[in-house]
Amino acid sequence: MEKSVFNAKQVKDEIIDWIKSYFDATGGDAKAVIGISGGKDSAIAAALCVEAVGKERVIGVLMPQGVQSDIDVSYSVCKHLGIRHHEINIGEAVNALYSPIQAVGLELNDIAVFNTPARVRMATLYAVSGIEGGRVVNTCNLSETFVGWETKYGDSAGDFSPISDLTVTEVKAIGYELALPAEFIEKTPIDGLCGKTDEDGLGFSYNTLDKYIREGICDDEHSKNRILELQVRSEHKRNPIPQFKYTGR
Protein backbone atom coordinates (compact mmCIF):
# COMPACT_ATOMS: atom_id res chain seq x y z
CA MET A 1 0.00 0.00 0.00
CA GLU A 2 1.54 3.28 -1.11
CA LYS A 3 1.93 5.90 1.59
CA SER A 4 0.28 9.22 0.77
CA VAL A 5 1.10 12.58 2.30
CA PHE A 6 -1.58 13.88 4.66
CA ASN A 7 -2.31 17.55 4.04
CA ALA A 8 -3.71 18.61 7.42
CA LYS A 9 -4.57 22.16 6.36
CA GLN A 10 -6.49 21.02 3.30
CA VAL A 11 -8.37 18.31 5.20
CA LYS A 12 -9.18 20.73 8.04
CA ASP A 13 -10.71 23.17 5.54
CA GLU A 14 -12.64 20.35 3.87
CA ILE A 15 -14.09 19.18 7.19
CA ILE A 16 -15.15 22.71 8.09
CA ASP A 17 -16.89 23.09 4.73
CA TRP A 18 -18.51 19.68 5.22
CA ILE A 19 -19.87 20.66 8.65
CA LYS A 20 -21.25 23.90 7.18
CA SER A 21 -22.97 21.93 4.44
CA TYR A 22 -24.39 19.46 6.95
CA PHE A 23 -25.97 22.22 9.00
CA ASP A 24 -27.21 24.07 5.93
CA ALA A 25 -28.92 20.90 4.74
CA THR A 26 -30.29 19.59 8.02
CA GLY A 27 -30.34 22.20 10.72
CA GLY A 28 -30.32 25.77 9.48
CA ASP A 29 -29.42 27.56 12.70
CA ALA A 30 -29.25 24.38 14.85
CA LYS A 31 -26.49 24.07 17.41
CA ALA A 32 -23.69 21.52 17.63
CA VAL A 33 -23.96 19.67 20.96
CA ILE A 34 -20.78 17.88 21.97
CA GLY A 35 -19.55 15.97 24.98
CA ILE A 36 -16.31 17.53 26.19
CA SER A 37 -14.30 14.78 27.88
CA GLY A 38 -11.02 16.65 27.99
CA GLY A 39 -9.51 14.34 25.37
CA LYS A 40 -8.13 15.30 21.98
CA ASP A 41 -11.05 14.03 19.90
CA SER A 42 -13.77 16.10 21.58
CA ALA A 43 -11.51 19.17 21.75
CA ILE A 44 -10.62 18.97 18.06
CA ALA A 45 -14.16 18.13 16.91
CA ALA A 46 -15.49 21.06 18.96
CA ALA A 47 -12.88 23.40 17.48
CA LEU A 48 -13.88 22.31 13.96
CA CYS A 49 -17.53 23.05 14.78
CA VAL A 50 -16.60 26.48 16.12
CA GLU A 51 -14.81 27.25 12.86
CA ALA A 52 -17.78 25.98 10.84
CA VAL A 53 -20.80 27.47 12.60
CA GLY A 54 -19.39 29.89 15.17
CA LYS A 55 -18.83 29.54 18.90
CA GLU A 56 -22.33 30.80 19.71
CA ARG A 57 -23.79 27.65 18.13
CA VAL A 58 -21.52 25.11 19.82
CA ILE A 59 -22.53 23.75 23.24
CA GLY A 60 -20.17 21.67 25.32
CA VAL A 61 -21.53 19.11 27.79
CA LEU A 62 -19.26 17.94 30.60
CA MET A 63 -20.44 14.63 32.04
CA PRO A 64 -18.38 13.43 34.99
CA GLN A 65 -19.41 10.24 36.74
CA GLY A 66 -19.09 11.34 40.32
CA VAL A 67 -15.64 12.90 40.72
CA GLN A 68 -13.55 13.35 37.56
CA SER A 69 -9.95 14.13 38.41
CA ASP A 70 -9.16 15.85 35.11
CA ILE A 71 -12.40 17.77 34.57
CA ASP A 72 -10.39 21.00 34.74
CA VAL A 73 -9.10 20.12 31.26
CA SER A 74 -12.67 19.97 29.95
CA TYR A 75 -13.35 23.41 31.39
CA SER A 76 -10.11 24.70 29.86
CA VAL A 77 -11.19 23.42 26.42
CA CYS A 78 -14.53 25.24 26.70
CA LYS A 79 -12.84 28.43 27.88
CA HIS A 80 -10.25 28.30 25.09
CA LEU A 81 -12.95 27.84 22.46
CA GLY A 82 -15.29 30.37 24.07
CA ILE A 83 -18.26 28.01 23.98
CA ARG A 84 -21.23 27.80 26.29
CA HIS A 85 -21.22 24.64 28.39
CA HIS A 86 -23.15 22.61 30.96
CA GLU A 87 -21.79 20.24 33.60
CA ILE A 88 -24.20 17.33 34.11
CA ASN A 89 -23.00 14.68 36.55
CA ILE A 90 -24.20 11.23 35.44
CA GLY A 91 -23.14 9.44 38.63
CA GLU A 92 -26.61 9.22 40.17
CA ALA A 93 -28.22 8.21 36.87
CA VAL A 94 -25.74 5.35 36.37
CA ASN A 95 -26.18 4.12 39.94
CA ALA A 96 -29.95 4.34 39.60
CA LEU A 97 -29.68 1.99 36.63
CA TYR A 98 -27.29 -0.41 38.36
CA SER A 99 -29.42 -0.79 41.51
CA PRO A 100 -32.47 -2.53 39.98
CA ILE A 101 -30.17 -4.69 37.84
CA GLN A 102 -28.35 -5.89 40.94
CA ALA A 103 -31.65 -6.23 42.79
CA VAL A 104 -32.69 -9.11 40.49
CA GLY A 105 -29.47 -10.95 41.28
CA LEU A 106 -27.38 -9.93 38.28
CA GLU A 107 -23.76 -9.20 39.11
CA LEU A 108 -22.13 -6.26 37.35
CA ASN A 109 -19.04 -7.10 35.31
CA ASP A 110 -16.40 -4.99 33.54
CA ILE A 111 -18.39 -4.90 30.30
CA ALA A 112 -21.46 -3.43 31.99
CA VAL A 113 -19.47 -1.06 34.17
CA PHE A 114 -17.42 0.23 31.24
CA ASN A 115 -20.17 0.62 28.66
CA THR A 116 -23.20 1.75 30.64
CA PRO A 117 -21.84 5.22 31.53
CA ALA A 118 -20.99 5.84 27.86
CA ARG A 119 -24.59 5.07 26.90
CA VAL A 120 -25.94 7.28 29.68
CA ARG A 121 -23.70 10.07 28.42
CA MET A 122 -25.10 9.71 24.92
CA ALA A 123 -28.66 9.76 26.25
CA THR A 124 -27.73 12.93 28.14
CA LEU A 125 -26.35 14.54 24.98
CA TYR A 126 -29.57 13.80 23.12
CA ALA A 127 -31.63 15.25 25.96
CA VAL A 128 -29.57 18.46 25.88
CA SER A 129 -29.74 18.49 22.09
CA GLY A 130 -33.53 18.21 22.19
CA ILE A 131 -33.77 21.10 24.65
CA GLU A 132 -31.25 23.32 22.86
CA GLY A 133 -32.34 22.51 19.31
CA GLY A 134 -29.12 20.84 18.31
CA ARG A 135 -27.31 18.06 16.52
CA VAL A 136 -25.10 15.67 18.49
CA VAL A 137 -21.47 15.51 17.41
CA ASN A 138 -19.91 12.06 17.16
CA THR A 139 -16.25 12.32 18.19
CA CYS A 140 -14.91 8.87 17.25
CA ASN A 141 -11.80 8.54 15.12
CA LEU A 142 -10.89 5.85 12.58
CA SER A 143 -8.19 4.23 14.71
CA GLU A 144 -10.53 3.54 17.61
CA THR A 145 -13.36 2.41 15.35
CA PHE A 146 -11.02 0.08 13.41
CA VAL A 147 -10.45 -2.02 16.54
CA GLY A 148 -13.78 -1.37 18.25
CA TRP A 149 -12.37 0.89 20.98
CA GLU A 150 -15.75 2.55 21.44
CA THR A 151 -19.13 1.76 22.97
CA LYS A 152 -21.96 0.67 20.70
CA TYR A 153 -24.82 3.20 21.09
CA GLY A 154 -22.56 5.15 23.43
CA ASP A 155 -19.74 7.28 22.07
CA SER A 156 -20.15 5.58 18.68
CA ALA A 157 -23.53 7.33 18.23
CA GLY A 158 -24.31 10.87 17.10
CA ASP A 159 -25.88 12.86 14.28
CA PHE A 160 -22.75 13.78 12.34
CA SER A 161 -19.16 12.66 12.54
CA PRO A 162 -16.41 15.06 11.46
CA ILE A 163 -13.29 13.03 12.32
CA SER A 164 -14.40 9.40 11.99
CA ASP A 165 -12.43 8.85 8.77
CA LEU A 166 -9.15 10.09 10.27
CA THR A 167 -6.57 8.16 12.26
CA VAL A 168 -5.31 9.40 15.63
CA THR A 169 -2.16 10.71 13.95
CA GLU A 170 -4.22 12.65 11.42
CA VAL A 171 -6.64 13.98 14.04
CA LYS A 172 -3.70 15.35 16.01
CA ALA A 173 -2.36 17.06 12.89
CA ILE A 174 -5.75 18.71 12.41
CA GLY A 175 -5.60 19.90 16.02
CA TYR A 176 -2.29 21.65 15.42
CA GLU A 177 -3.69 23.25 12.25
CA LEU A 178 -6.50 24.61 14.43
CA ALA A 179 -3.83 26.11 16.73
CA LEU A 180 -5.10 24.21 19.75
CA PRO A 181 -2.72 24.01 22.72
CA ALA A 182 -0.57 20.88 22.74
CA GLU A 183 -1.93 19.99 26.19
CA PHE A 184 -5.32 19.28 24.58
CA ILE A 185 -3.92 17.40 21.60
CA GLU A 186 -1.35 15.24 23.38
CA LYS A 187 -3.31 14.43 26.55
CA THR A 188 -2.90 10.71 27.24
CA PRO A 189 -6.26 8.96 26.82
CA ILE A 190 -7.35 6.79 29.76
CA ASP A 191 -9.84 3.94 29.37
CA GLY A 192 -11.98 5.11 32.30
CA LEU A 193 -12.32 1.61 33.77
CA CYS A 194 -9.10 0.70 35.54
CA GLY A 195 -6.89 3.72 34.98
CA LYS A 196 -4.93 2.19 32.10
CA THR A 197 -4.04 4.24 29.07
CA ASP A 198 -5.82 3.32 25.84
CA GLU A 199 -2.56 1.98 24.44
CA ASP A 200 -2.02 -0.23 27.51
CA GLY A 201 -5.49 -1.65 27.05
CA LEU A 202 -5.10 -2.15 23.32
CA GLY A 203 -1.70 -3.77 23.59
CA PHE A 204 -0.07 -1.61 20.91
CA SER A 205 0.52 2.06 20.20
CA TYR A 206 -1.70 4.27 18.07
CA ASN A 207 1.31 4.92 15.85
CA THR A 208 1.53 1.19 15.18
CA LEU A 209 -2.20 0.96 14.51
CA ASP A 210 -2.26 4.04 12.26
CA LYS A 211 0.64 2.73 10.18
CA TYR A 212 -1.20 -0.55 9.72
CA ILE A 213 -4.44 1.22 8.73
CA ARG A 214 -2.85 3.57 6.19
CA GLU A 215 0.07 1.48 4.90
CA GLY A 216 -0.86 -2.10 5.72
CA ILE A 217 2.46 -2.44 7.55
CA CYS A 218 3.08 -3.76 11.06
CA ASP A 219 6.62 -4.73 11.95
CA ASP A 220 5.62 -6.58 15.11
CA GLU A 221 3.76 -9.84 14.52
CA HIS A 222 2.23 -9.87 18.00
CA SER A 223 0.78 -6.36 17.52
CA LYS A 224 -0.53 -7.26 14.08
CA ASN A 225 -2.30 -10.34 15.41
CA ARG A 226 -3.78 -8.30 18.24
CA ILE A 227 -5.04 -5.65 15.80
CA LEU A 228 -6.67 -8.30 13.61
CA GLU A 229 -8.18 -10.02 16.64
CA LEU A 230 -9.78 -6.80 17.89
CA GLN A 231 -10.98 -5.91 14.40
CA VAL A 232 -12.77 -9.23 13.94
CA ARG A 233 -14.21 -9.21 17.47
CA SER A 234 -15.66 -5.71 17.03
CA GLU A 235 -17.07 -6.12 13.51
CA HIS A 236 -20.63 -5.99 14.86
CA LYS A 237 -20.02 -2.42 16.05
CA ARG A 238 -19.27 -1.17 12.54
CA ASN A 239 -22.02 -3.02 10.70
CA PRO A 240 -25.65 -1.89 10.45
CA ILE A 241 -28.15 -3.81 12.57
CA PRO A 242 -28.88 -7.12 10.79
CA GLN A 243 -32.46 -7.04 9.55
CA PHE A 244 -34.82 -9.86 8.69
CA LYS A 245 -36.16 -9.17 5.22
CA TYR A 246 -39.80 -10.10 4.81
CA THR A 247 -40.42 -11.33 1.27
CA GLY A 248 -44.09 -12.23 1.57
CA ARG A 249 -45.36 -9.08 -0.12
Features:
globular; single chain; 249 residues; 12 helices; alpha/beta; four-stranded parallel beta sheet
Strand arrangement within the widest β-sheet reads: 3-2-1-4
Strand content: 5-15%
* Structure classification: alpha/beta
Shape: globular
Helix content: 40-55%
Give the termini separation. Answer: 46 Å
Tally of contiguous helical segments: 12
Tell me the number of strands: 4
List unreliable stretches of 5+ residues.
none
Order of helices and strands: HEHEHEHHEHHHHHHH
Tell me what the structure shows.
The structure is a single chain. The chain is α/β, with parallel strands linked by helices and 249 residues long. It has helices at residues 8-26, 40-53, 71-81, 91-103, 110-132, 142-146, 168-177, 182-185, 198-202, 206-215, 221-233, 235-238; strands spanning 31-35, 58-62, 84-87, 134-136. α2 (40-53) links the parallel β1 (31-35) and β2 (58-62). The longest helix has 23 residues, at 110-132.
Write the layout of secondary structure elements.
Blueprint: H1 8-26, E1 31-35, H2 40-53, E2 58-62, H3 71-81, E3 84-87, H4 91-103, H5 110-132, E4 134-136, H6 142-146, H7 168-177, H8 182-185, H9 198-202, H10 206-215, H11 221-233, H12 235-238
Parallel strand pairs: 1-2, 1-4, 2-3
Helix pairs in contact: 1-2, 1-7, 2-3, 2-7
What is this entry, summarized?
This protein is of the alpha/beta class. The chain is built from twelve helices and four strands, in the order H-E-H-E-H-E-H-H-E-H-H-H-H-H-H-H.
